[in-house]
Amino acid sequence: MSDTPGSHTPAPSAPEQAAKRPLRVVIGADTFAPDVNGAARFAERLAAGLVSRGHEVHIVAPAASRKHGTWTEVHEGQEMTVHRLYSWRWYPHDWLRFALPWRIRQNSARILDEVKPDVVHFQSHIVVGRGLGLEAEKRGIRIIGTNHFMPENMLEFTLLPRSVQNRAIAMAWRAAKRTFGRAEAVTTPTAKAAQFLEKYTGLRGVHAISCGIDAHNYTPSFEPRTENRVLFVGRVTGEKNIDVLLNAIALMPAELDVKLEIVGGGDQKRALEQLAVDRGIADRVTFDGYVTDEELRAAYTRSTIFAMPSIAELQSIATMEAMASGLPIVAANAMALPHLVHDGQNGYLFAPGDAQELADRLRDILEAPADKLDAMKRESLKLIEAHDINRTITTFEALYRGERVNDPVIDGSVPQESATAAGE
């Protein structure tokens, strides 16, 4: 990967892309469906989009159970080959399984020699990405790396004492630099995340490419409100700061009768249920756990506001889905969330961890006149247009072919200046 930004040239048009031969792509992921998280969902949607365009896609990921091997799976309505690696359960986490680090190079070599891909695109540097990167480099296979990971997100599951956590974070970033350094192009979902990755790894020219969503899958509602419903969607874990949201709901006036719906599962669910009881709001808080895609879309449509109190979002697909559902957003002013939430336009930002400010911003929207609420809804719908999944797939096709790309404008600003010639 180049340490110096190259010149910008437009990505090929759709007709030019269509005229080129299909690619054989290996996507490596440490988390993949049925896991429910942003990185897994992105890999699934990217793979399905590539298959729909005629490319041959192979997924390499940990087995979701003790059953492992290679077979055809259907994701997002598309068939693809999935190589499920023998995995172990990481019990400090509520669902995470990982491929064995000491077998990953052997497995990667075997799969690459069988598939003979044009390109390897890994989604993290931890286990699968490291193995595929090492073996692809040996074989001269083009490598693209995407980072969805912050070491801080995993600290609570490592069982490491706080006294050594900073050292562990530094080691994780050094490992990231080694693995991503093998890639001809490195991407991450937002300009803020790209700057973050460059700062902590020393890499240069990281592309900011939105994970993207298909906004047509979501249904905005402009019907008059019949209740005040706040929605959170995501992993129910510590770094999401859901306790701040519960405390904010408890601070709101009783006459607003605010209901909170929490969609997602995780290790903090019981503790948060108890917090709701302690704060006297248990009768107004619903913990849905994991739901189907149809149930999730319905939850977005029936809500008034989407709240995201997390401080560790490299993009937040859930927030993007809420915007595609026409919801105003109230989010922590941290990491990549300000790329999605334009303060005072499609919602508000609040100081991370400040439950009172979060409550005040929620109240601003719930007490707003109907025309202002509708204006915020329309602004969310307008801003999400820049995150179309088809544009994301087209950009990755160009990177896979070694073509120069401009980073798509994903936050209403000018294109990021780190766009480089892939492979330079």
Automatic annotation (TrEMBL):
Region spans: Disordered: 1-20
Keywords annotated in UniProt: Glycosyltransferase, Transferase
Name of a matching Pfam family: Glycos_transf_1
Residue span, Glycosyltransferase subfamily 4-like N-terminal domain: 36-215
Start and end residues of each Glycosyl transferase family domain: 223-378
TM region(s), chain numbering: none
Example GO BP: carbohydrate derivative biosynthetic process
GO molecular function, one term: glycosyltransferase activity
Gene3D superfamilies per the UniProt record, alphabetical: Glycogen Phosphorylase B (3.40.50.2000)
Name of this protein: D-inositol 3-phosphate glycosyltransferase
Lineage: Bacteria, Bacillati, Actinomycetota, Actinomycetes, Micrococcales
